[in-house]
Amino acid sequence: MPRVLLTGFEPFCGEALNPSWEAVRALEGVRIAGHRVAARCLAVEFGRSLPQLRAAIRETSPSLVVCVGQAGGRAQLSLERIGINVDDARIPDNAGRQPVDLPIVDGGPDAYFSTLPLKAMLQALRRAGIPAEVSQTAGTYVCNHVLYGLMHALRRKRRIRGGFIHIPFSPEQAAAHPGAASLSLDTVQQGLRVAVRAALTTRDDIRLAAGATH
Ligand code: PCA
User: Fold this and answer.
1) pTM of the predicted model, to two decimals?
2) Which of 2, 5, 170, 182 is the most exposed place for a label (fewest CB within 10 A)?
3) Average pLDDT rounded to a whole number, residues 112-122
């Protein structure tokens, strides 16, 4: 059976868990639209995350790769549109490294677009009652690093679609960040299933306005 590779991240920034890995690990082995899910956890490290991701792609030969990360403070599932060729870490990574204004790939393109059908995924999520948005920036930390590195790795494998979804804090995390938005793990898991199904069953993306004025 063809495979979908889903990745989450280990905890970072003093959190006890990372809801991205909690949601993704629960989908290991699940079947979605005739595909079997393989789940992997990536280090929140500039140095290790991409070698881990590339190894996971080699091992699983997926037809779709969706990387998932936590974006504390965001209120919805965020379908990332673009990864940019810069590391600018506001906080050190889990190995204590804090690159500032360094390219991810020396001489690489400034940016890569996600190749997921974002608008079809957005529509499917909203129809399933799951709050979602298209995001115009994945930041400049490890998640953007992984999105850019993923699309760089897939640049000559156009049949393998790839992209990135940011998710809010879990309710338990938000309780320690008063006022921050959260989504339950159940909702996130269900959202990932809906998003992956839409990505697997949509050939040409739909036209749906979901941009931002700022
Ligand atoms: N979120 C961080 C890195 C790991 C994660 O889950 C980010 O948004 O860059």
Assistant:
1) 0.98
2) 2
3) 98
